Amino acid sequence: MTSTGEDHVTARGGPWWWERWRGAVLDGGLAALSVLECAAEGVSFAWDAGIPVWAGVLFGALAGSVLVVRRKWPIAVVLVAIAVTPAQMGFLMGVVGLYTLAACELPRRIIGSLAGMSSVGTLIVTFVRVRQDMARGELGIGDWFVPFAAVTISLGLTAPPVLLGLYVGARRRLMESLRERADSLERELQLLAERAEERAEWARSEERTRIAREMHDVVAHRVSLMVVHAAALQAVARKDPEKAVRNAALVGDMGRQALTELREMLGVLRSGGGAPGERSVPLAAVGAAAAAAASRAAVEEGEGPSLAELGELVGQSAAAGMVVDLSVQGEVRSYAPEVEQTAFRVVQEALTNVHKHASGAKTYVRLAHRVSEIAMQVENDPPPEPGSASVAGLPSGGNGLVGMKERVAALGGVFVSGPTEAGGFRVSAVIPASAAS
After folding, report:
1. How confident is the model over 104-158, as pLDDT tens digits?
2. Which of 68, 72, 109, 367 has a Cα-to-Cα distance from 19 of 20 to 30 A?
3. Long-range contacts at 75-83 (CB < 8 A, ≥ 24 apart)
4. Using an 8 Å Cβ cutoff, are 57 and 42 in contact?
């Protein structure tokens, strides 16, 4: 993890306008040196100006102490340094003030103007002082030395601190920009991680729903038929032993088929869709993503039901006592495995609902092969006795219609269900023939 701007802000704990105590101590030390320097130079200033020495020392000390506010008011420090330049004091204050001014985030024209004023002031004062020294005979060098000394001292006291301040200010701004970029990148990465977690959670939720729907389709129909046959077996066990034997055989066959389908599904889920011979992994360790891939692989390999088994499905319901009329229109052809499985499951769930809610009602199953789509419809008449449900008392979880609608919508189809005017119930679905598996 990078050091964020928030960490940088929290590290500030200095007094007044200082960000850190270290800066306050540094500025206090520089101000103390400036006070000593200006106070010492105030003695000669007092002699030259003809004022009491204590006044010159006090003036110098007050002027030098301005350096303590260099971080808050750098312009004021430079202006004071320029003002005391004729008194030949405040050299440390001038150098440090120019450096601080150049390092601040101020417009370049202000920095250039004040640096120029300081340079010109130093140039004039140096020129006058050196010329006076030569006139008094203290310097025996030629006249060329006066401008040379003035320019050299002026540039020496102005250019280095300004250039160093500009460099430090640019570097500081660069570091702040990089820190802001790092903070922004860290926030983006955190946002991406949260979105990825949300997508993963959504995918897990979708996969749980899909697996639950698949389990419902596999178990509900078979078990419902078994319950219906068991109820019929109980009713005819004493009156018609032969029919009871046939019903018992049907119950056993359906139970074995349900177990076979469950084993196939659980086997695919446990293997995670891996290569043959791979060690199987429990579903809890594989996770929802592996379960999704495994289940889709099962569909692609044709392990799920298809429309070719529709006749057998209708026959099982007829064997359970339902009067079923199956009609197929159009040219029979094959579709993508997922299309055929969805169409089969819609008919299967609709027949299961008839067993649950309209026992004994005549049912019509219609399948139409069209040019670009396949349509199916399961419609039942009203039950012989209005309001009657299955004699076996089959429970209903209310998920069948929802599951059918989700299956059809996932393939871009249309699903409609509802009661008919005659008092029965109708389930209709249309699935595009080109839907991808």
Report:
1. 888 888 888 888 888 888 888 888 877 776 776 666 666 677 788 888 888 888 8
2. 109
3. 75/101, 75/106, 75/110, 75/114, 77/101, 78/114, 78/118, 79/114, 81/118, 82/114, 82/117, 82/118, 82/121
4. yes
- Whether the Cβ atoms of residue 310 and residue 346 lie closer than 8 Å to each other: no
Domain ranges, residue 70: 5-193
Quick check: pTM over 0.90?
no
Element (H, E) at 281: none
Domains identified in the chain, total number: 2
Looking at 145, 178, 193, the residue that finishes a domain is 193
Residue 335: CATH number of its domain:
3.30.565.10
Q: Which of 268, 277, 260, 337 is nearest to 306 (CA)?
A: 337
User: Is residue 293 included in any domain, yes or no?
Assistant: no
User: Dihedral angle at the C-alpha atoms of 46, 52, 53, 59, nearest 10 degrees?
Assistant: -70
| DSSP for residue 372 | S
Q: Which of 143, 158, 193 is the last residue of a domain?
A: 193
Residues 143, 144, 150, 155, Cα dihedral to 10°: 180
Please tell me whether residues 136 and 13 are part of one structural domain: yes
